[in-house]
Structures are given as C-alpha cells and as structure tokens.
C-alpha cells in the first residue's frame, strides 16, 4: 500500500499508477506491434499505413466513432463487474459464462415480452440479463463462501458449462428459430431492442442506446465502490480479508454479493450485445468479451472511470483493427497481439518504469510494491 | 486474448503481407468477408478467397478481405467495406446470410454476392452461390463404402446448417447406394438422415475438436472419416497422420486438401470439392462487365461446380472396378438416371 505522506503524494502516485503506466504500456505495445509486423515481412510503408488506418477506423469518422462505442459498451460493462470483483479480492474468470447466461436470458425475456410495449419489454429484458448473470456468478460465490472452492477454478468450469448449456438451450423449441436445425435463437422483437441512435443520419451507424446503459453503470459502480457501505466492505475484504473479518464484516456474504454484482454487470454486457447489436443469440455470440474484459479491468486499474477509458481504448482497437485490415491488408490478429502486449506491460509496472523513466517521481514511488 | 485466434497469428500475418496494397489506383475492387475459420483455413474460406486471387491475376483488379473472428463481426465487417468503395462485396458462408441481407437492403446500389445462401424471395442486389454438394458427396460415400475394411465409416459437421448437412446427406446416401448394390451393410456414424441429427462441433475453427471427434469415430470402429467443418478437419487429419493411413483415412471438403494441406496430404483418400473459387471468379468477371444480376448461381457435378478430387497417393489403393463404378455413377447423376436426393 502507498505511504500516505500527504494528499499531494497520493494524487501523484495515483496519477502515475492510473495514467502514466497504462499510457506507456499502450505506447510500448504499439512499438512492439510494429516490430512484430516488421519481423513477419511487412514493409515500413504498410506499417505506417496500418497505424493511420487504426486511427482512422477508430475515431476518424462518425461511423468509426459509432463502431468504437458499439465495441466498447459490452467491454466496459463486463469490465466493471470484474473490477468490482478484483476490489473485493475475487479473481473472477467467469465473465464469459455470465455474459452468455445474461444474453440468453435477455433473448428469452425479449421474445416472451414481444407483445408488450417497449417501455415494459426493454427494461425487463435488460433486467433478466442482469439477473441471470448475477445468479450464475452467485454459484461460484456460494461455492467459495460455503466450501472454500477457489473462484478461479469454479468460474472457469462454469464457463465451459455455459458454452454447452448455450448450445443445448438454443436448440430447444422455446428459443430456437423456426425452420432452422442449427443452434440459433429467435429474433428479438423490436420492442425489446436497444434502439439505434443515429440511423436517421446513416442506416449503417450501429451505435445504440446501450452506451447510456454503459455510462449509467460506470456511475453506479463508482457510487457502489466508493460511496456505499457495501462497496466499503468489498474493498476492505479485498485489501485484507482477516482485518475485515475482525472488523465485523461477514466474509461469506461479501463474497457472494461481490460475485453477484460482478455477474449482474457481465449479464448486462450479454444483454447489451443481443438486444443492441446482434438481435439474436448464437453459439459464438459472447465472442470472448468476458476474457477481453479481464484485460479492460486490469488496464483500468479496477477503477470504474479507468475501466470506462480502457474499454473505449479496446473498442477503438477493435474498430480500428478492422480498418487496418481493409486499408493495409494487415491481419486482425495483430490487434490481438497489441492487446495482449498492453496487458503484459500493465502487469509489469517496473518494466514500464525502466523503459520510460519520464514523468515518474523518484523516491517515494520506489518504495511501492511492499 | 483469444486463444483460438492466436495459433493462427503468424500464418495469418504471412498471408496478409502477401497482399501489399497501395500504388496505382485500381479500376475495380472486389472485397470479401470471411467466416470465422479465417482466410487461411486450407478449405472453405481459402477456396472462396482463391476466386478473388484468380481474378486479381487474370483481370488486374484489387482485392481486399476482412476476417471474421467471431459471429459478432459479420455486420461490422460488411459495414466497414461499404465505406471502402468496393465494386462487389462477397460474403462467405451461410451464417452471414442475415447480415448480408440487412446490408443489401440498406444499401440497394451496392452489389453483393454470398456463398452458400439462397434468398427467397430473391434480393435484386444479391447473387447467391449455392452448390449441389450432395452429388459429389454421394460419390465419396460410395467410394468410402467400397474402401472401408471395418465396414464402418464416420462423418461429423461444423454446425447443423444446410450447406454442411448436404455433404453428410450425400455421403450417407452414397453408402446406402453401395449397400443396396452390393448387398453389404456398411454403417455410417455421425449423421442420421431421418431425424437430421448427428455429430457437430458447433464451430468452424477449433482444430482440437476435429481431432477429438475423429478420435471418437475411430474408437467406434470407423476407418474413414469425413469432417465437414472447414479447418476443424485439419485436426482430424493430424490424428490420421499419427495413426497411419491403414488405420484412418480422411476425406477432405471444399478444396482438394491434397494441395492445400500439403503437410498431411498423404492422409486424404479424396476431397469433395466445392469450386467456390470458380464461382467467385465468375461473379467478379460478370460484375466487371456490368452484367451483375441478383439471383442464384448453382454449382453441380455437370458444370464442375462440385466434384470428387483425384486419389493422388492413394490411387493405387482404389480398385479399378470401383473407379469404373464411380465414373458410371458420375455419368448417371449428371444425366439424371441416378437420384441423390431420395
């Protein structure tokens, strides 16, 4: 823990931790990404062209911004859940499964509520997604609290179960699309869809009302974590579980609740995808969001505002990566490499400090990491 | 962070680098969106992309592609090509059907062509490319029944969708045709014609699944396996390579895998070819001449759109009688005297 010598020192350390390290990690990852391209025989002009395309495809036009936001929303939502878990000392690998269960529940609710007006159908569908995610994550929380089963193992296993459960449920008559033999759900009726926001400008703009959900949840997560009793209990348990217990915090309850809240947010990410983007559920609809969100939460240093910016960055990489493929013919896999490299550098702050000495305070910061 | 993706990273970059874009402006640009198998899958997507590459070589056009790494990419990928001034957008795969329809209806002036999907009613700016793959698979089934020593052959699919199951339909009917003609009892594992259920990996990109499914079929006694799942089948080929071809032979799909999967070419008895390269090239040529029309293009044994690849290294293993019977069947299917659909 940081030494709180004065208010200014804390601000400075936080600045280094929250802004400088992620920023330098991103720069280092871009440079190494370029090296990887060069090493695999891409010429310098194409490398330059691909980075221009990366910018152009992420923020260079209205459509680019729309795509960045569309890709960011589920990452931020699931990332917030993971960040809350991290704060409570829980390493939840199960966001992917929670995204799947949330998305599936949103589809079921959306289809069932097709006859209702939008004001009823949409909120209930979203709520169904959150609830399903919370319950599914709650299993792992309960296992941890009641039996001591480690949540890393149980959430990974629950992920595997969720894939098969999805395959199976998508083929049940209640959910499966009429006239199809493959696992694919019915389409979401229009009343339960998250409306697209900018189709009056261009029908191809995909940004939808899920971004408001995303922003609202950032605020809720911030309030929960730093302004509520429950959030205090999460943080206390995460910092020092033994001290928290002696302070009268119910450890088991905290674990279950933290997992449920994390799962609810991941479930919202799933609901956001099916109600706002995909219009249906298919076996691959989660698309690794739950795993990418781990990276987003780490990059955002488990701070709700940090997660928002990290999610926007990853969304921008996804949208820009597509443009990189179109303009420069560089493989989308490179984006995966850059994302992974960012995480490597984030996980090794000392390496970042060694590579980029500029802007870091000498002295107090060196005592960090005890 | 996506494990499935990472094992293809280097080969994919290598392929991508072969396509250095830039320089002079091209008069015509053909764009392609792949399914999740990726552009270098040695079978489905790669065959369709070869059609664009052939067109690049023959007509001097420019070609671009976008790989879908997840089903969530379809719409976004098509969208980013609509931005990019493509003269034709070719989407590859049945699963892109809905996304392609939506994009085509929203952009009525943009010509589209989709592999493996037929719209009913037709959309004026979409040309569907579909294939009577069961005709060629029928031959492969007959061949497999004639070649098996355990009297058990197996198949499995990627996802239970018509362009996959049509292979399995033809394969099973080919085996049944052999059984009826020879009063034999060769069994097919992995696909039930009546209730339309069978073995499916539910993805088109996991090579480990291909290995595991082939292992299961082998354990049940199958000595010839037909994987209908794009690159997933490469995992099955690896197993056959390790077991040896006297234990397990593989029938390839889409491309002649003897040529595209050169490391394991000796395990392929034959391949059921689906000449997406030919139809994609034809669509590009027609569009260049201003003759693009929405509708349907059907590949058959007769027009060479589907076929059975040569036996290559296994040519000596296939009895001459069987070869003659296969040729007779081929002629019969083309002239209509033999039906593969009942």
UniProtKB/TrEMBL annotation, chain A:
InterPro entries: ABC_transp_permease
A GO CC term attached to the entry: plasma membrane
Record's keyword annotation contains Transmembrane helix: yes
Location in or out of the cell: Cell membrane
The keyword Cell membrane appears for this protein: yes
Pfam family, one: BPD_transp_2
Any one GO molecular function term: transmembrane transporter activity
PANTHER family noted in UniProt: ABC TRANSPORTER, PERMEASE PROTEIN, GUANOSINE ABC TRANSPORTER PERMEASE PROTEIN NUPP
Name the record gives this protein: Ribose ABC transporter permease protein
Species whose genome carries this gene: Boseongicola aestuarii
The organism's taxonomic lineage, starting at the top: Bacteria, Pseudomonadati, Pseudomonadota, Alphaproteobacteria, Rhodobacterales
UniProtKB/TrEMBL annotation, chain B:
Top-level division of the source organism's lineage: Bacteria
Pfam hit, one: Bmp
UniProt entry keywords in alphabetical sequence: Cell membrane, Lipoprotein, Membrane, Signal
Membrane disposition: Lipid-anchor
Residues making up the signal peptide according to the UniProt record: 1-27
Localization (cell): Cell membrane
Domain ABC transporter substrate-binding protein PnrA-like: residue ranges: 31-312
Family annotation (SUPFAM superfamilies): Periplasmic binding protein-like I (SSF53822)
Gene Ontology cellular component annotations, sorted alphabetically: plasma membrane
Keyword Lipoprotein: yes
Similarity-based family: Belongs to the BMP lipoprotein family.
PANTHER family: ABC TRANSPORTER GUANOSINE-BINDING PROTEIN NUPN, TRANSCRIPTIONAL ACTIVATOR PROTEIN MED
Name of the protein: Membrane lipoprotein TmpC
Lineage, highest ranks first: Bacteria, Pseudomonadati, Pseudomonadota, Alphaproteobacteria, Rhodobacterales
């Amino acid at each position: 823990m940081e030494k709180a010598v004065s208010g200014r020192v804390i601000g400075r350390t936080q600045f280094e931790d929250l802004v400088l390290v992620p920023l330098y990690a991103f720069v280092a990852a871009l440079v190494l990404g370029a090296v990887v391209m060069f090493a695999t025989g891409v010429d310098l002009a194409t490398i330059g062209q691909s980075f221009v395309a990366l910018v152009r495809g992420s923020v260079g036009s209205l459509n680019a911004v729309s795509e960045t936001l569309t890709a960011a929303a589920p990452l931020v939502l699931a990332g917030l859940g993971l960040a809350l878990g991290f704060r409570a000392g829980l390493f939840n690998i199960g966001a992917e499964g929670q995204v799947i269960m949330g998305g599936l529940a949103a589809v079921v609710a959306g289809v069932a509520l097709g006859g209702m007006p939008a004001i009823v159908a949409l909120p209930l569908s979203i709520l169904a997604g959150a609830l399903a995610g919370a319950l599914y994550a709650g299993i792992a929380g309960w296992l941890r609290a009641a039996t001591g089963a480690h949540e890393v193992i149980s959430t990974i296993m629950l992920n595997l179960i969720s894939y098969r459960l999805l395959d199976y449920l998508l083929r049940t008559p209640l959910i499966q699309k009429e006239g199809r033999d493959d696992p694919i759900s019915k389409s979401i009726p229009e009343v339960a869809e998250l409306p697209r926001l900018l189709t009056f400008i261009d029908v191809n703009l995909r940004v939808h009302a899920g971004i408001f959900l995303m922003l609202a949840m950032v605020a809720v997560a911030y309030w929960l974590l730093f302004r509520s009793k429950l959030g205090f209990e999460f943080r206390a348990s995460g910092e020092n579980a033994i001290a928290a217990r002696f302070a009268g915090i119910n450890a088991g309850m905290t674990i279950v609740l933290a997992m449920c809240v994390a799962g609810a947010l991941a479930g919202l990410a799933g609901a956001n995808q099916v109600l706002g983007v995909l219009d249906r559920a298919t076996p691959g609809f989660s698309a690794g969001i739950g795993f990418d969100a781990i990276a987003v939460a780490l990059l955002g240093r488990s701070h709700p505002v940090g997660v928002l910016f990290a999610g926007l960055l990853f969304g921008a990489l996804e949208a820009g990566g597509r443009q990189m493929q179109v303009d420069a013919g560089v493989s989308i896999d490179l984006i995966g490499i850059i994302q992974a490299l960012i995480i490597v550098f984030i996980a090794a702050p000392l390496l970042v400090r060694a590579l980029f000495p500029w802007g870091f305070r000498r002295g107090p910061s060196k005592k960090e990491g005890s | 962070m996506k494990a499935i993706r990472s094992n293809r990273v280097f080969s994919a970059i290598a392929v991508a680098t072969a396509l250095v874009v830039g320089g002079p402006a091209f008069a015509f640009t053909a764009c392609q969106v792949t399914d999740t198998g990726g552009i270098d899958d040695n079978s489905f997507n790669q065959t369709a992309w070869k059609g664009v590459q052939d067109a690049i070589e023959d007509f001097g056009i420019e070609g671009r592609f976008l790989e879908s790494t997840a089903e969530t990419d379809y719409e976004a990928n098509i969208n980013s090509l609509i931005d990019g001034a493509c003269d034709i957008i070719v989407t590859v795969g049945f699963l892109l059907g809905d996304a392609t329809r939506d994009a085509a209806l929203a952009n009525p002036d943009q010509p589209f062509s989709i592999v493996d999907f037929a719209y009913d009613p037709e959309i004026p700016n979409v040309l569907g490319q579909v294939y009577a793959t069961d005709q060629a698979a029928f031959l492969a089934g007959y061949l497999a029944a004639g070649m098996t020593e355990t009297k058990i052959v197996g198949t499995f699919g990627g996802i239970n969708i018509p362009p996959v199951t049509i292979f399995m339909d033809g394969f099973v009917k080919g085996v049944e045709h052999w059984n009826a003609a020879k009063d034999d009892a060769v069994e097919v594992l992995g696909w039930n014609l009546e209730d339309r259920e069978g073995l499916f990996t539910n993805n088109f990109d996991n090579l480990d699944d291909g290995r595991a499914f082939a292992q299961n079929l082998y354990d049940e006694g199958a000595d010839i396996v037909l994987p209908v799942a794009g690159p997933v089948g490469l995992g099955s080929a690896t197993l056959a390579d390790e077991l040896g071809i006297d234990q397990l032979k593989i029938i390839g799909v889409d491309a002649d895998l003897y040529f595209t999967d050169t490391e394991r070419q000796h395990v392929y008895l034959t391949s059921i070819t689906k000449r997406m390269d030919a139809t994609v090239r034809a669509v590009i040529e027609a569009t260049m001449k201003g003759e693009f029309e929405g509708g349907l293009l059907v590949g058959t044994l007769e027009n060479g759109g589907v076929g059975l690849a040569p036996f290559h290294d296994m040519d000596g293993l296939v009895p001459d009688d069987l070869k003659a019977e296969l040729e007779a069947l081929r002629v019969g299917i083309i002239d209509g005297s033999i039906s593969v659909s009942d």
